[in-house]
Design brief:
By secondary structure, this protein is mostly helical. About 50% of the residues lie in helices and about 10% in strands.
Length: about 140
């Protein structure tokens, strides 16, 4: 965790996660800060299983359940960073939003300091092309 979870309820009324994502986040190998936070999750986070699982996605359980839930509930977007999951979402007409987009929007609205958040993100196992990060940091710098 990079310490910016509080931007989610500022940007979204509610965040839904399927049980498989909850299990991934609660797994003993997940960062302790994540599992500790999840053990006392706030009201804006809700675990909800999809009614049915979409066939043929060929993704891991969390991404499969998340996309199945999105297809069922028809929200405008899904928070997903894995490349194959983002591609699958697009195939079904769902806009994938990644952590970098969330951080960028939160910075634009004054909810966080993008440069600091990216610095903490770089210390995690999150992987992204360095050129993309540099470009986003340059844009944030221009904003002031």
């Amino acid at each position: 965790m990079i310490g910016e979870i509080e931007v989610l309820p500022k940007l979204f009324d509610q965040v839904l996660i399927p049980p498989a994502v909850f299990a991934e986040l609660s797994h003993p190998h997940a960062p302790e800060s994540v599992s500790t936070w999840l053990a006392d999750a706030p009201n804006w986070l809700r675990v909800q299983p999809p009614s049915c699982i979409q066939d043929g996605l060929n993704l891991d359980a969390g991404e499969t359940e998340a996309i199945s839930l999105v297809l069922e509930l028809k929200p405008l977007a899904i928070l997903i960073d894995e490349k194959r999951g983002r591609e699958a979402a697009r195939r079904y007409g769902v806009v994938p939003i990644g952590i970098l987009s969330i951080l960028d929007v939160a910075d634009r609205r004054g909810f966080l300091d993008f440069k600091e958040a990216i610095g903490r993100l770089r210390l995690t196992n999150f992987r992204v092309a360095p050129k993309l990060l540099d470009s986003l940091l340059e844009e944030a710098k221009k904003r002031g």
